[in-house]
Amino acid sequence: MSWDEQTDGVEERLVGAAADREDLAVEAALRPKDFGEFIGQTRVREQLDLVLRAARARGATADHVLLSGAPGLGKTTLSLIIAAEMGAPIRITSGPAIQHAGDLAAILSSLAEGEVLFLDEIHRMSRPAEEMLYMAMEDFRVDVIVGKGPGATAIPLELPPFTLVGATTRAGLLPPPLRDRFGFTGHMEFYEPTELERVVHRSAGLLAVEVTADGAAEIAGRSRGTPRIANRLLRRVRDYAQVRADGVVTREAARRALAVYEVDERGLDRLDRSVLHALLNLFGGGPVGLSTLSVAVGEERETVEEVAEPFLVREGLLARTPRGRVATPAAWRHLGLTPPAREGGTGQDGLFGM
């Protein structure tokens, strides 16, 4: 089952980090144009700025760049900034779109000198294309195979120097030979609430939305550390404020709007809470197997594991153990429930004091 099939029906989640068509359209208007406008990711931004300044001073093409991190943190935006800082055009494609070595060869052979090639979800590229990319990154050359069988001939094709910017949400799936060919690797961290407040204020200004400081703070606190989600919540709260209030995004308007959209104060939505409710109310907090938990919430196993669990684990509400999924004390508190007493103590698998 492909990732697209796994997430079918869940990508429309208001707090999902995957971009939908509306997100892509709005993000194009909201994207920062340079490092000065880019909010957050201070360490990666500073390091990249040094790499690009040094390359410009040498009159050279910038080193290849690998950006890793969860969806919605700004990897595409940084790739566009890299191209702008180097004064170079950018070509955008993705790993799933390159299923044959010929697909990659066609792209590489059409690049201009100094051009930036942004390859999103690079870990999903086919193996033959991946092996061709090794030589292209290191030697700026590819071997085009002409013919088949014993009579096949490899024709070397020289490439102009270019900068590859690879983006991945799963850096661990990249083979070491590919990772080693990147001159700079940056990991995108989740944003702090104060950074997301700045993102909300900036986006509100660009969207001509009046937002108060406490309204921005309320949205930022429910955005799961992700600017894309913050911008999406801002648009939905804006809609609510325009229809049911005076058009100003205040804390009260944000709270009422996000209650309508079932996003709670920690950013959990219906799917997240369904998983926790099943784990706590049906299985006493666990441990319970993933397949059993998935059946209990009426979702595919992959949906629970890939869509709901990562945020619940990051928030300290759920733990993955060898025996199964276990709720933490924070999960019981968040849902206003009392954990059951356990023999020999109050805990489960060491999570409650054992």
Give a verbal description of the structure:
The protein is α/β, with parallel strands linked by helices and 354 residues long. Helix content is 45%, strand content 12%. The strands form three sheets. Strands 2-3-6-1-7 form a five-stranded parallel β-sheet, with helices on one face. Strands 4-5 form a two-stranded antiparallel ribbon. A two-stranded antiparallel ribbon has the order 8-9.
Keywords:
354 residues; alpha/beta; Rossmann fold; Helicase, Ruva Protein, domain 3; Arc Repressor Mutant, subunit A; 3 domains; two-stranded antiparallel ribbon; 45% helix; 12% strand; ATP-binding; DNA-binding; Holliday junction branch migration complex subunit RuvB; DNA damage
Q: Please report which band the strand proportion falls in: under 5%, 5-15%, 15-25%, 25-35%, 35-45% or over 45%.
A: 5-15%
pLDDT averaged residue by residue: 85
Strand segment count? 9
Q: Which spans of ≥5 residues are poorly predicted at pLDDT below 50? A: 1-11, 344-354
Largest sheet: 5 strands, parallel
Q: What top-tier CATH class of the largest domain fits best?
A: Alpha Beta
Binding site for DNA: 301, 320, 325
Region (Small ATPAse domain (RuvB-S)): 192-262
Main location: cytoplasm
Region (Large ATPase domain (RuvB-L)): 11-191
